[in-house]
Specification:
The chain has two domains: 1-51; 53-212, 3-Layer(bba) Sandwich (Chalcone isomerase), CATH 3.50.70.20. Helices cover 35% and strands 21% of the residues. The protein has helices at 6-51, 98-107, 183-189, 201-212; strands spanning 60-61, 70-73, 91-96, 115-123, 127-128, 131-132, 136-147, 159-163, 173-174. The protein has a five-stranded antiparallel β-sheet. It has a two-stranded antiparallel sheet with strand order 1-9. Strands 5-6 form a two-stranded antiparallel ribbon. It is elongated and about 100 Å long.
Length: 213
């Protein structure tokens, strides 16, 4: 059996080396990218978890600092327009955990760990220099919804809902509401994953941005 000259074999080996190095570099790069993505997702979940705390009984501690989160919108269903007895007559100022909003804007999905705060504000004056309308009064209540596949694996959509009261002083901690109290309504009427995105143009615009990318 004839073998190619030593010089030829060395030349072929030299030709193979760059390809092998390139393949190895690509493999290392892909591995590092995968680790970076995993670390980023873990960081986001950790950050979301740091925004809320639970006591030893598993009750949600009333969150703070949420007014610095991503503002989503403020719907209102006043008594005047609901026969004098609206189920939710207050303004609902809604804030979403920033990392969850970023994820929603990039993917169109509410990630595990999403926290949404609804701060209730009474209807105050109905006339201002700008005209007749409904203007905010005082803070009167606070509610929170949270998506957690581990903690609320048995709840519809893995969402849990909490109420800290509709008048001050608010409760310091709250238990998750029964599914029939909140999840069923959200499941039947909310447009996107138990969230009433149909009433929040900020969320609709964020989701639509994923379609244009």
């Amino acid at each position: 059996m004839n073998h190619p000259p030593l010089k030829t074999r060395r030349f072929r080996l030299l030709l193979l080396v760059p390809g092998v190095i390139a393949i190895a570099a690509i493999a290392v790069s892909m591995n590092l990218q995968g680790q970076a993505v995993a670390a980023q997702n873990a960081k986001k979940k950790s950050h979301a978890s740091s925004l809320v705390q639970f006591n030893k009984d598993g009750e949600l501690v009333r969150p703070t600092g949420y007014r610095k989160w991503t503002y989503v919108g403020t719907p209102v269903t006043p008594n005047d327009m609901n026969g004098g007895n609206a189920p939710f007559p207050e303004f609902h100022s809604v804030y979403m955990s920033p990392d969850a909003f970023d994820h929603y804007e990039n993917t169109g999905d509410f990630p595990d760990g999403t926290v949404i705060v609804k701060e209730l504000v009474s209807v105050g004056d109905k006339e201002a220099t700008s005209g007749i309308g409904y203007f905010m009064g005082e803070f009167v209540g606070l509610e929170v919804s949270m998506k957690d596949k581990t903690r609320y694996k048995d709840k519809p959509g893995n969402w849990a809902y909490f109420s800290f009261g509709h008048k001050y002083p608010l409760k310091d901690h709250a238990k998750a509401q029964p599914a029939a109290s909140c999840n069923d309504c959200h499941d039947g009427s909310a447009d996107d994953d138990f969230v009433f995105t149909q009433y929040y143009p900020v969320l609709r615009a964020a989701k639509n941005s994923t379609k244009s990318n």
